[in-house]
Design brief:
Keywords: DNA-binding. Residues 1-97 bind DNA. Residues 1-97 form the OmpR/PhoB-type domain. Strands 1-2-3-4 form a four-stranded antiparallel beta sheet, with helices on one face. Strands 5-7-6 form a three-stranded antiparallel beta sheet. It is built from 29 helices and seven strands. Strand 1 (2-5) and strand 2 (8-11) form a beta hairpin. The longest helix is centred in the middle third of the chain and has 18 residues, at 323-340. The N and C termini lie far apart (63 Å). By secondary structure, it is mainly alpha-helical. The chain has helices at residues 28-39, 47-54, 62-77, 115-124, 128-137, 146-158, 166-179, 182-198, 202-218, 222-238, 242-256, 262-278, 282-297, 303-319, 323-340, 346-359, 362-379, 384-398, 401-413, 421-428, 432-443, 448-452, 454-467, 471-483, 491-504, 510-526, 529-545, 549-566, 569-585, and strands at residues 2-5, 8-11, 16-19, 22-24, 45-46, 85-88, 92-95.
Length: 599
């Protein structure tokens, strides 16, 4: 039996894999795995089934299978299909070169053997790089229809290079106008506005939106009108007009509901939920975003729309400090990217970096954000300051406070604030007034970014004030939080509230230790290992002061284990200092030797 996929041909009888007619050298087990997966294309094949097929009557570990899968992906990489084998944690692997529709952009035809037909075919296979190269060769081809120019712009954007799509989209607008299809011209103009806004050119974005509105006034189209209103909602929000943004997003979704475009419905509903979250309507906003994601996952949305839906949800989770939800959506987004052959944007890498920093390993998070920053600089410069804020937080958790300070300063230089990390660093280096002033300035912001983070800013301000002996000021911050308990119920916020109340307790008050225990449990339930370990060290100190030596030992041991796992030398040093302090205090009278704490 012979199989064809991408530019490969797999001949089972001849045991041969060819790429564009050229035979490829691969190991026998790699060939066998590829054959088995291709025969079962579209199905998740369990790991046990694959191991039985590849190694009959031989006991092997999953590591052997993982190695063969890795070698198979390398073989497929020669044809740009290294992502064709999808991994499913704790389940197995699936071979999938899916050919879903590309949203509102569809190839005119996939017939013929010429370069244009091949470019269309590669676009349908989601081989973005190869398709973009062919379209670039066809730039002067008079047979390139307006629909083909739209498709060209899409494959460039899907390949992770939206800025390079700008001249192509401008050409698409002109081509559609010349062809008399003003609605399609308006659609391309809105996409141009989106890319310009994301690269920080707000005035240019406004200009393209006005062009789109003018075209639509001559040729009304509901789907394009919804798309236009959606983009206007984004600009309203970034301009500090959240109520206007919600109204525009709601109007966009109301129109999209009656359009035969599930991607548009998902997109407009996601942003409606996003702005509801910013305005404190937590349950409503979360439900709308979850519904939007379900629409996107159950439909053949194009990679750009899918990325916007996921990216928007992750922004909400991060700014709202909802780390359990952030982890779930981050994992779902990575699976979606693999299944859709989508290239992750700088913003997507930014989200992943902060989620990894909160819940996994700090050096890995640092690698993620270092990969994100060049992408943000080139394609999404509006969020570059947020990238430096996130990297500053990662440096602070690792223990490189000099680099953290430099990144926080860079975030401010780019027009963002770097709170609450900057304020925490100011407080820890002795500037209590500066820390609280920085948070108060951030609390005055009216953009979605400030509104969604308000609870996190308030509770950090309360905690810093309490730890700095400003109990009256801490109570003011806590009162606003207490006035809207349903808005700030995420575990991370509740953990900081418990820390604040513990700091407000009088020395020797046993309720302080109970509150720290609660904070540690809440951080653990949120999956934020760094802060759980940080509170463990606070709790260990408090337990030692109250004479609970065994309890202190348990907390120090757990904190040290977390510090090693996370790669936080800061926590390791703090734990070591606490250990040495305890050793000196627990040294028996008359014993001149240093006793190490035995755990």
């Amino acid at each position: 039996m012979q199989h064809s996929f991408g530019q490969f041909e797999l001949d089972e009888a001849a045991r041969k894999l060819s790429l564009s007619g050229v035979g490829q050298k691969i190991q026998p087990l790699v060939f066998d795995l590829l054959v088995y997966l291709v025969r079962n294309a579209g199905r998740v094949v369990p790991k046990d089934e694959l191991m039985d097929a590849l190694w009959p009557d031989v006991i092997v570990t999953e590591a052997s299978l993982q190695r063969v899968v890795s070698l198979t992906r390398k073989a497929l990489a020669a044809g740009g299909l290294q992502d064709a084998i999808h991994s499913y944690v704790r389940h197995g692997y699936r071979f999938a070169i899916d050919e879903p529709g590309l949203g509102y952009v569809r190839p005119a035809s996939l017939q013929g053997d010429d370069m244009l037909a091949e470019a269309r075919r590669l676009a349908a296979l989601r081989d973005w790089s190869a398709a973009a190269k062919l379209f670039a060769h066809l730039a002067d081809n008079e047979d390139l229809s307006p629909a083909d120019v739209d498709l060209w712009a899409l494959v460039v954007e899907c390949g992770g290079r939206p800025t390079e799509a700008i001249p192509v989209l401008a050409r698409a607008v002109a081509a559609h106008v010349e062809a008399g299809d003003l609605a399609r011209a308006a659609r391309s103009a809105v996409t141009l506005a989106k890319i310009q806004a994301e690269r920080g050119s707000g005035a240019v974005a406004e200009g393209w939106l006005e062009r789109a509105a003018s075209l639509l006034s001559q040729s009304p189209d509901d789907a394009t009108q919804a798309y236009l209103l959606w983009m206007r909602s984004r600009l309203a929000s970034s301009g500090g007009r959240p109520e206007d943004a919600l109204q525009l997003a709601s109007a966009a979704y109301a129109i999209a509901e009656n359009c035969d475009d599930p991607g548009l419905r998902a997109l407009t509903l996601t942003y409606k939920g996003f702005f509801n979250l910013a305005l404190g309507k937590i349950d409503e906003g979360s439900e709308q975003q979850n519904h939007a994601a379900a629409i996107a996952l159950s439909s053949q949305v194009d990679p750009i729309t899918g990325s916007l839906v996921y990216c928007n949800i992750l922004w909400s989770c991060r700014t709202y400090a909802d780390w359990p939800r952030a982890r779930q959506w981050s994992e779902g987004f990575e699976s979606w990217c693999t299944a859709s052959f989508a290239q992750t944007s700088g913003a997507c890498d930014l989200h992943r970096a902060e989620v990894v920093a909160a819940q996994q390993i700090l050096p890995e998070a640092l690698t993620c954000i270092n990969e994100a920053l060049p992408k943000l600089s080139a394609e999404e410069s509006w969020s570059l300051g947020e990238g430096f804020r996130v990297r500053g937080d990662i440096f602070a958790m690792i223990g490189d406070l000099t680099s953290a300070r430099a990144d926080y300063d860079q975030a401010y230089a780019l027009g963002w604030d770097a709170e609450p990390g900057n304020a925490v660093l100011l407080f820890e280096t002795g500037d209590l007034d500066g820390a609280l002033a920085a948070l108060d300035r951030a609390l005055q912001g009216m953009s979605w970014f400030h509104l969604q983070r308000r609870g996190n800013l308030l509770v950090n301000a309360a905690c810093i004030a309490a730890r700095g002996g400003r109990s009256a000021q801490a109570s003011i911050y806590l009162n606003e939080i207490d006035a809207q308990p349903e808005r700030w119920r995420q575990p991370a916020t509740q953990a900081l509230i418990a820390e604040t109340k513990a700091a407000l307790c009088e020395p020797g008050d046993p309720n302080g230790n109970r509150l720290l225990l609660l904070a540690r449990q809440l951080w653990t339930s949120a999956g934020v290992e760094y802060h759980a370990a940080r509170v463990r060290l606070q709790l260990a100190s408090a337990l030692l002061r109250s004479g609970d030596v065994s309890g202190a030992k348990v907390e120090i041991t757990a904190a040290e284990r977390s510090a090693r796992h996370l790669g936080s030398r800061r926590l390791e040093e703090e734990a070591a200092t606490l250990r040495r302090s305890f050793s000196r205090e627990s040294q028996p009278p008359g014993d001149g030797s240093m006793q190490e704490l035995t755990l």
